[in-house]
Amino acid sequence: MFLVIEVDRGYSFGIDWHKEIKGVRLGFIAIHVFNTRFEYFVKTMKEERENAMR
C-alpha cells in the first residue's frame, strides 16, 4: 500500500474508486491510496506507456 499526491494542470473535482485505487480530486491536487505493491504499479505504468507509444 502506498500514497500518491498528484498535481495536475486541469481543475477537477471527484472521487476515484477503482479496484486497487481509491482517491479524491480537489481542484489541482489529487490524493490516491493504492492497495497494491509499488513494483506492480511501476510495471503497469511502464506497460501502458509502451502500448501508448505503438
Description of the molecule:
With 54 residues, this protein is of the alpha+beta class. It has one domain (2-52). The chain has 1 helix and 2 strands, in the order E-E-H. The chain has a two-stranded antiparallel ribbon. Strand 1 (2-17) and strand 2 (21-34) form a beta hairpin. The longest helix is centred in the C-terminal third of the chain and has 15 residues, at 38-52. It is globular. The termini are far apart.
Task: Chart the SSEs and their pairings.
Elements: E1 2-17, E2 21-34, H1 38-52
Antiparallel strand pairs: 1-2
How would a crystallographer describe the biggest sheet? 2 strands, antiparallel
How far is the N terminus from the C terminus?
31 Å
Bin the helical content. Answer: 25-40%
The structural class is alpha+beta
What is the count of β-strands? 2
Overall pLDDT confidence = 92
Q: How is the largest sheet built, in terms of strand order?
A: 1-2
Notable features of this structure?
globular; two-stranded antiparallel ribbon; about 55% strand; about 55 residues; 2 strands; alpha+beta; 1 helix
